[in-house]
Amino acid sequence: MLDLTQVLTYSAALGIAAAIPGPGMAALVARSVSGGALTGFCLLFGLILGDLTYLSFAVFGLAMIAEHFNELFQLVRWGAALYLFYLAWQFWFADHQAIEVGKPVKRKELLSAAVSGLTITLGNPKTIAFYLALLPLVINLETVSLATWGLMLVPLTVLVLLSVGALFVFGAVRIRHLLSSLRAQQRLFRGAAAIMVAAGAAMLVR
User: Fold this and answer.
1) Contact 25/90 with Cβ under 8 angstroms?
2) Signal peptide location in the record (predicted)?
3) What is the pLDDT of residues 130-142, one digit of tens each?
């Protein structure tokens, strides 16, 4: 099991990494403004699921797999970058509508938000770098058992990401009235698009 120092170090590192502006949080703010808190939390669910995927890969030996299947990971890297470019295109040319507070959200929109959160995280170079480069420096992964992963790392990751993400969601919802105009929404979404382009370019450069 992890000791208190490892728990605090991992929580702090993950919290800081999550709070640093990136494609995930940019999309979270944009979707929370346009769709409300429920849409934002569905996207956050997808983001967290993506983080748990990389956490699991790191704990169960993704680095070792990468050494033997480098061509496959190169393909994944290019696919992730292209997907981020596609999302950036969607955000840039999004068809905005006047915000209606209290308007019921369709189930299809909630599912779309969750899937977007998952795919954004899987293609986010910041997330990949954290779990494959920084995490081994914080925790000795060779000593992490299945019980430690399931009973400590997974709940801790969910708690930290949910706490940080909730701040972004509620903050975005509180300023919805300031972004009710179509022009303000366009600027917000295009700013998110620019961040996604930068993240996609970082994937290709690395």
Assistant:
1) no
2) none
3) 887 788 888 888 7
Nearest to 138, CA basis, from 18, 10, 1: 10
Domain residue spans of the chain: 4-13+23-205
The pTM for the full model equals: 0.78
Q: DSSP for the chain, please give it.
A: ---HHHHHHHHHHHHHHHHS--HHHHHHHHHHHHH-HHHHHHHHHHHHHHHHHHHHHHHTTHHHHHHH-HHHHHHHHHHHHHHHHHHHHHHHT-------TTPPPPHHHHHHHHHHHHHHHHT-HHHHHIIIIIHHHHS-GGG--HHHIIIIIHHHHHHHHHHHHHHHHHHHHHTGGGG-SHHHHHHHHHHHHHHHHHHHHHHHH-
